[in-house]
Design brief:
Elements: E1 2-6, H1 17-24, E2 28-31, H2 33-36, E3 45-48, H3 53-61, E4 68-72, H4 81-89, E5 94-97, H5 102-110, E6 118-121, H6 129-132, E7 138-141, H7 148-158, E8 164-169, E9 177-182, E10 193-198
Parallel strand pairs: 1-4, 1-5, 2-3, 2-4, 6-7
Antiparallel strand pairs: 7-10, 8-9, 8-10
The structure holds S-adenosylmethionine (SAM).
S-adenosylmethionine binds at residues 9-10, 73-75, 78-80, 101-102, 123, 141-143, 168, 170-172, 192-194.
């Protein structure tokens, strides 16, 4: 059985009991270094997930008779590895255990509801900023290439009235920081982050 487990933004406390139970029953664990490190006592096989997706898919395939659990950041089906696993192995062959996405967590911490929010990602993908700018309330996961500063510059260039950006940095970690910033004043670089864009505070 192949299971993909959402581990939340960070820390075991944001994993559901069902997610923890799946890990405890696993023969083999697959995940990014940050996520594998959360299970130092796991005694089964481990496989590090990075840019080596094809290799990891083959590794999982070779263990089809075992209980393999893939650890996914946040929620597996929100711009996560879950989508790739479903496409490769088929819906009937992958169990998905949901997790708290970085976006959900940031909204909760900032006290912003998710009603009518447009959700997207710049993580490893090109963003259509003309489309993004048509939405007044946006949340997105990012990466180093296209983070808060780039996103803010694209919004300022389009002048559609996006006034506020909330940058959630290192969410759920000891060094978590949540910044409320004027879009026009976002000029710095941030560590691992998720952003929410609003017209009103
Ligand atoms: C491949 S996406 C995965 C998103 C994930 N599936 C989710 O539901 O949150 C990775 C991006 O999620 C965001 N992210 C994940 N964990 C985070 C955290 N603890 N703090 C801030 N952003 C985080 C960052 O933008 C990171 O580059």
């Amino acid at each position: 059985m192949l299971t993909v487990v959402g581990v939340g933004p960070a820390g075991l406390q944001l994993m559901t009991p069902l997610a923890k139970e799946a890990v405890s029953r696993a023969d083999a664990l697959v995940g990014g270094a940050r996520h594998l490190a959360q299970f130092p006592d796991f005694s089964g096989e481990r496989c590090a997930l990075g840019a080596n997706i094809a290799e990891v898919l083959a590794w999982i395939e070779a263990r089809s008779a075992q209980n393999v659990v893939v650890l996914a950041s946040g929620d597996p089906l929100f711009y996560g590895i879950g989508t790739r696993l479903l496409a490769h192995f088929g819906r009937d062959n992958v169990q998905v255990i949901p997790g708290v996405s970085a976006v959900q967590y940031l909204c909760a911490r900032a006290g912003v509801d998710m009603n009518d929010m447009w959700l997207t990602s710049s993580h490893g993908r090109a963003v259509n900023f003309d489309v993004l700018a048509t939405h007044q309330k946006v949340a997105m996961v990012t990466d180093k290439r296209c983070g808060p500063k780039t996103i803010a510059a694209e919004l300022v260039a389009r002048g559609k009235g996006h006034r506020w950006m909330i940058v959630g940095e290192n969410l759920a970690q000891d060094d978590e920081r949540i910044h409320w910033l004027r879009v026009s004043a976002v000029v710095n670089d941030y560590e691992m982050n998720t952003v929410v864009i609003l017209d009103e505070r």
